[in-house]
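To fix ideas, we close by showing one paired sequence and structure record:
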Amino acid sequence: MTASPPLSTSPLRHPLGSVQLYAPTDWFDLLADGDDEEAARTRCADLINRSYPHKAAGPRQEYTDALMAWRRVLLAQGVITHGVVAVPEGEYGRAVWQISAGVVDVGPSNQDVDLGEVLARHFGQELRGRQVYTESFPTAMGIGMGIISQPELLSADRTELFPDPPAARAARPLAKLGLAVCLACPPGGGRGLMVVGTCLDAEQVLAMASIVALIAGKSTFLEQPEPAEDGASS
């Protein structure tokens, strides 16, 4: 794989709080334009035109429309960034990663809690007995929790995010993907930053997970300024 893209911090706002996000500076962030639909469409159209120059104008317009529709879904779900990392075919293969981040509610927590289970509840799935790797780690916010998995595509409408061990499977999967999820939050819980990464090549999940963990580990919340005595913001 090539070296990780350069990272830096940038402030992003969310109804649950503003985040100083530590993230790559040279990836394509689908949400970088915020509410500016015109600017977003211009960037999406440029990306599609450069990615598919051999396609006719009609299909390229449809691809752009699809990107814009996906962008609206992400914004509606409270996602604050959705970055795409694409590396052309090379010595170590082709890489296509998508990494999203959003602010989520986190219940009361402490260092004795199984942090992997806390994160799994956000997905509505159990981790016990599944073929996943979980780890707790310190973050700039306080505590962090992470999951690495290789989701299995079982049919056109069924995907197991946290698969059973091979011996317990009823059938071979059609394909495997890579999934890395990290949640960073203060020791007392409350709100947290969830970072989710997916990759098309399951064997690249560890490399992608290092970026996901770095974003979650070094990002922080920006505290709102205290109101001045006259009622104005200081």
User: Anything to note?
Assistant: The longest strand covers residues 95-106. The longest helix spans residues 57-76. The two ends are 47 Å apart (CA to CA). Residues 136 and 145 are 5 Å apart (CA to CA).
